[in-house]
Amino acid sequence: MSRDDFLDLLGRLDGSRTIEDLERETGLDGEVVREVVEPAVVWGLVDEGAVPVVSPGTAALARLEGLLNDLLEDLVLTGPFWRRILERPQRLHPNVFFGFGLENWFLLSRESGLGSAVQTLAENADLRQALDDFDRSRHDDVAVRAFRSLGATRGDLLRARPLPTTAALIKMLSWWARTDPLFFVATLGVIEERLEADNEEPVARCPFLAACETVGLTPGFVEPMRAHARAGAARRHGALSRALFARMPGIDEETERSWHAKAHLFMETYAGFCDGVLDHYSDPHRPLLRLCG
């Protein structure tokens, strides 16, 4: 193959031609054409030009949220932690409630920082504003106010270590924030709690807060948690993922399949996070704060 024939062949690789088209238009033998094109495909220099089958971002998210909700029911809400919260909260040691608030703070205080990776998706000012608003939610201030009533200072919180099950969830979300930010965004609705805000009190149906009231926990702990839930509902953190996906281009089938596979791993790890709280904090002899150093 001459240099001119080679350059002519490369110039025709515009996604609109088949191998047979290239053979006919260039007059080159089909095997010669394949010697150039097939290695280029293997090395990722050119790819299949067929138009992929895609769905609108909101449709793909709706299917993913449906799967996440089903898994939430099957793996999380039927697990030991939430069964006890929903059915027999009076039998739980108060540290289980305090520990759940603490471990959620470990998770949420790091989650907001992970949003920087998602900023690469924000191609307009509205999206950047929504992400900035999420990052400024000040989960750390909520925890400081709640745990001050229990005698813990900000310094104590900063020196405390999350449970291994919490650390596993944090590391997993950190990885997805960097490698698959759209899937990370889709998990926000679960992490931020899917509160039903169809009445004047958007946190009235939060089962954790209801259980706190049932067992009569100190208002110094409960009220900051309630204020955080109310602020999150007002800012519609749970709807942030939908706002982002509404502005996304089409989602191809392969990407959607990979999200559904990750959904199972995410929800299994989230269930481990919840049940890890019950396992650790049910023992009254264990300290509430696991301090480093």
What does this structure look like?
By secondary structure, the chain is an all-alpha fold. It contains 15 helices and two strands. The chain has a two-stranded antiparallel ribbon. Helix 6 packs antiparallel against helix 7. About 2% of the residues have low confidence.
Beta-strand residue percentage? under 5%
Distinct helical segment count: 15
Number of E-type strands? 2
Poorly predicted regions are 194-200
> What's the rounded overall pLDDT mean?
82
End-to-end C-alpha gap: 70 Å
Globally, the shape reads elongated
Structural class: mainly alpha
Reading the helices and strands in chain order gives HHHEHHHHHHHHHHHEH
Gyration radius, in Å: 25 Å
Largest sheet: spatial strand order: 1-2
- Residue share in helix: 55-70%
Quick summary of this structure?
The chain has helices at 3-11, 19-26, 30-42, 57-76, 80-87, 94-118, 125-135, 139-148, 154-159, 164-179, 181-191, 207-215, 219-235, 240-245, 253-281; strands at 54-55, 251-252. By secondary structure, the protein is an all-alpha fold.
